[in-house]
Amino acid sequence: MPDTPTGTIEVLDRQTLRELLQEGHAPVVTLAHPTERAVADPQQNALRAKQQRKLAADALVAAGVDERTQGAILADIDALIGDHDYWAHQLEGLVHYAWQGGSRTYRVPYPVDARAEVDQRPHLQPLLPALELGGAFHVLALSQGQVRLLRCTRSAVERLDLADAGIPASLDEAVAADDADPPHLDHRAASAGGDRQVFHGHGGSEHDSKQVEKFLRAVVRGVDRLLANAKAPLVLAAVEELAAGFRARTRLPTLAGPFISGSPDERRDEELRDAAWPIVEDVLRAPVHRAIEQHRAKQGTGLALADLPEVLMAASMGRVGTLLVRRGAQRWGRFVPGEGLQAEHDEPTGPHDEDLVALAVATTLLHGGDAFYLDPSEMPVDEALAAVTRF
């Protein structure tokens, strides 16, 4: 049995972005636009892609790319545009990268700003929110009649196999499997002022409480073992008594404080995912909040940068540990590592210009740093970039 749960949900992580940067070679098209999950005419989604495709083709012409190479770079997006079924299964945004000989397409669970650009490398800014909002989390739907362990992202959900982890699917299954073991009650009572934990079954008898105790022990044992090395937060969905019993026995540090109260049996997997999201959102965004506070705390120490040339130089040297990027920010020009910023413009002025914001993001990630995409109101300074350096 693996140490951490596996499944079919693809979670976009920093390693994926680093691989994309290493694979995509110039000229690279970055094409992004919002989409709709439920739309009467799926071709409305395709139409947005077609409009961005036209802008990307114009940008390739401006970059001096010949017509044959243009066709090769845009071939995969052309194929998607013609796939009617594809556009009926969208999330809130689509990001497409294309270069001669390769492409990657990502459906993301949040709106993206429309863009169609040609540069030396993929512009990763539209994917940065996926590093936090696309992070995985688990939901344990716990009742005596049914146990479900779900692995979720903001837009997807799948059930993990309980049998492989030794987790009983119900109270009846736990009792049947544990009949040979002597009962080990966990009634906590006792001294004056102490609390008391007693489980009640359907009839409230001691026999029923022993069965519930067996059931809880088996669930906790299996879930703790399966998620022992998982960093994703776990949200419990259960009636108050079972929730308290699980919480008292588990050793998982990832268990969220709030839980989804009430029996989960009548709630679909997708409903449980959506109910858990408000609980885990702040947990998943905690690294962003810490990075903002770190920048504020280190201002004036030389470890918090916001000047574009300084940020670029620090990133090229591997000094940037965390990069904060203002949503929509773009600065075009040329930067030479070891020499510094050679030119800076609001718009590209020629084929040798590159988006310096995208360059800072790419360089930071390739050196093992983090990058976060923030609304202007969240930025600790009124600049395109803010960096916290390692040294």
What would you call the structural class?
A: alpha+beta
Largest sheet: 5 strands, mixed
Low confidence ranges: 1-7, 183-198
Instruction: Please give the share of residues in helix.
Output: 25-40%
What general outline do the C-alpha atoms trace? globular
Distance between the termini: 41 Å
Number of helices: 12
CATH architectural label of the largest domain: 2-Layer Sandwich
Number of domain modules: 3
User: What is the residue-averaged pLDDT?
Assistant: 89
Query: What is the β-strand count?
Result: 16
CATH fold naming of the largest domain: Nucleotidyltransferase, domain 5
Q: How much strand?
A: 15-25%
Tell me the radius of gyration. Answer: 26 Å
Describe the 3D structure:
The chain is an alpha+beta fold and 391 residues long. It folds into three domains: 111 residues, Translation, Eukaryotic Peptide Chain Release Factor Subunit 1, Chain A, CATH 3.30.960; 148 residues, Nucleotidyltransferase, domain 5, CATH 3.30.420; 104 residues, Ribosomal protein L30/S12 (60s Ribosomal Protein L30, Chain: A, 2-Layer Sandwich), CATH 3.30.1330.30. It has twelve helices and 16 strands. The strands form four sheets. It has a five-stranded mixed sheet with strand order 7-6-5-8-9, with helices on both faces. The chain has a four-stranded antiparallel sheet with strand order 3-2-1-4. It has a four-stranded mixed sheet with strand order 10-16-11-15, with helices on both faces. A hairpin with a 2-residue loop joins strand 2 and strand 3. Helix 2 runs antiparallel to helix 3. It is globular, with a radius of gyration of 26 Å. It starts with 13 loop residues before the first helix and ends with a strand.
